[in-house]
Amino acid sequence: MDKLNKNGKSLLQTKKIKLVVVGGGTGTFTVLTGLKKHLRLDLSVIVSMMDDGGSNRVIRDEFGLLPTSDIRQCIVALSEE
């Protein structure tokens, strides 16, 4: 039996579910964009920094910086519309 809050609603219906997504690349952006539509989710993401394609290779080789495109996409996916 599920516990009820003081309004008589199930805690599963009222409590936010904490969810951590682990990944990188376009797939993580797509998953986060879809999950963000569920109002009862408290989303966090762990993003891989292993991207070495395209402009990320230039950023890494020329400036010694970690690639930013995957994390930037995840920030956009989690941002408010």
Query: What kind of oligomer do you see?
Result: single chain
Whole-angstrom Rg: 18 Å
Arrangement of strands in the largest sheet: 1-2
Judging from the principal axes of the Cα atoms, what is the shape?
rod-shaped
Question: Which stretches are poorly predicted, pLDDT < 50 over at least 5 residues?
Answer: none
Organism: Candidatus Woesebacteria bacterium GW2011_GWA1_38_8
Protein name: Gluconeogenesis factor
InterPro entries: CofD, CofD-like_dom_sf, Gluconeogen_factor
Pfam families: CofD
Summary keywords:
alpha+beta; rod-shaped; 41% helix; 2 strands; 81 residues; single chain; 4 helices
Short recap of the structure:
One of its GO terms (molecular function) is LPPG:FO 2-phospho-L-lactate transferase activity. With 81 residues, the chain is α+β, with helices and mostly antiparallel strands.
What does this molecule look like?
The protein is rod-shaped, with a radius of gyration of 18 Å. It has one domain (17-78). The model has no long low-confidence stretch (mean pLDDT 82). Helix 2 (26-35) runs parallel beside helix 4. 12% of the residues are buried. The chain is α+β, with helices and mostly antiparallel strands and 81 residues long. It has a two-stranded parallel ribbon. The chain has four helices and two strands. The protein has helices at 11-14, 26-35, 55-63, 69-78; strands spanning 17-23, 41-47. Pfam families: CofD. It comes from Candidatus Woesebacteria bacterium GW2011_GWA1_38_8. This is Gluconeogenesis factor.
Secondary-structure topology with pairs:
Blueprint: H1 11-14, E1 17-23, H2 26-35, E2 41-47, H3 55-63, H4 69-78
Parallel strand pairs: 1-2
Helix pairs in contact: 2-4
